[in-house]
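Weekly puzzle thread! Below is a chain. First person to post its structure in C-alpha cell form gets bragging rights.
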Amino acid sequence: MRQITPRRGRPPSITRERIVGRALEVLDEQGTDGLTMKALAADLGVTTMALYRHVDDRETLLALALDAIAEPFAAIDFPDEPRACIDLAMTTLYDSLTAHPWVPEALIRPQRIGRGALLLTDAVMGAAYRLTGDRGTALAAYRALWSLTLGSVLSHLRQRAEGTPLTHERMDEIVGTMPPDAVPNLRASAELDAAPATADEFAASLAALMTGLFGPEGPWNS
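Winning reply:
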C-alpha cells in the first residue's frame, strides 16, 4: 500500500518572539500610547487575529516586553561582596530603565514579573541581608534602593523630554513670587540642580544611600 504523506499546513507567518521584538521597538519610539494591537499587526503585515493567537491582549504584550528587557538580568554574575552586588544590580536597572523611557509608566500596570527581574531583586535582598542580618531591614533597604533608582530614572527622563534642568522657568517664576526669605534651601541648591542628571550623579547618590543604610564600608560576613 502506498504511504500517504500528510500535507503540511502553511508555515506560521509570525512568532511571539517577532511580535515582542517589534513591540519593543514601537514602545521605545512612541511609548505605551503608540502601541496598539491593530497598528502592530499592520506593521508586521499580519491580521490582528494572528497576533491574538500568540498574545492574549495588549496588557500581556506589555508584560512580555518588560520580561524581554529584564531577561538579561538572569545572566548577571553578581559579586559575592554585598555592596558591589547592590551597586551592579541597581546600576544595571538604572541603565535599562533610562534606555527604555516607557518602562516606568508600564510598571504601574498589571504585569507578570519575569525571571530576570526576580533574580535581580533576590540578589539585592540577599546582599542587604548579609549586610544587616535582618530580613525586615533588608526588605526596607531594597525598597529604599528601588525608590532612589526609579526617582533618578524619572528625573533623567523628564529632563531628556523637556530639554531643561530641574530649575526650569516655571520653578523660577514661582520662586520669584515668594518673599526673599522663602524656600532658602531650594534657592541655595538652585545652581547645583542646574546640571542635567547623569549616570555619575546616580552612582554618587547610590553610594550615599548605601552608606546611610549600611554604614561606612568595612568587613562583612557572608
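Puzzle host: Confirmed. Bonus trivia for everyone else. DSSP finds eleven helices and no strands in the chain.
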